Amino acid sequence: MDFLPIIKTLSLALPGFLLAIVCHEAGHALMALRYGDDTAKLQGRLSLNPAVHYDLVGTVIFPMIGIMLGGVPFGWAKPVPVDPRRFKNMKSGMFWVSFAGPLANILLMILSAFLYAFIYTQVPATFGLKGQFLGMLEYSVFINILLAVFNLIPFPPLDGSKMVSTFLDYEAARKYEELQRYSFIFILILWFTPIFSYMIRPATMMGYSLINFFAGILG
Predict the structure, then answer these.
(1) pTM for this one?
(2) Is 25 a catalytic residue?
(3) What's the rounded Cα separation, in Å, for the pair 79 and 76?
(4) pLDDT digits over 133-180, tens only?
(5) Fewest C-beta in 10 Å: which of 54, 101, 119, 146?
(6) Residue ranges per structural domain of the chain
């Protein structure tokens, strides 16, 4: 096996990947605190330190499999603890706490697109690390799009399903959450079929359109 492409992908994609999953979980923790639940804060999860959000499978094993298969790192961090009973407004709190993770990824995607366009248009080609910085930011754009779209899928236990549950009555929400027993099969279907690539394509096109938009303004 040629390890050079793996090392290259790892070096370019790892910063964006770690920032994406850490900000995703910190976003959940910050929004929970805003709605009155300090559980995550008390457990040290309101932090951008990757060590406190680390998950062996989601942060190391799964991303490495993705890279070794020639793709980008895809994974997750340890979910932050949330106690909805402590929210000032339970339905509103659950919706926004659930949305805060994908929202953090969307904001990071926009920031990465802007920085890509800035470096592309404003940094001279004589700067030796320009290509590497552009590569890292391009990975960051794509990884954050990937995580945002995936987590917004309304299938339990993903964030999108928790957002949908806030609009359902108790009985409907309970039956809806029972779909979680099929989550592993659902993820396998997304992983081994082109379905997810079709789902993410419009968002990817939007991300690169955003880079072009910023480049047009800065150029």
Answers:
(1) 0.93
(2) yes
(3) 8
(4) 999 999 999 999 999 999 999 999 999 999 999 999 989 999 999 999
(5) 54
(6) 4-218
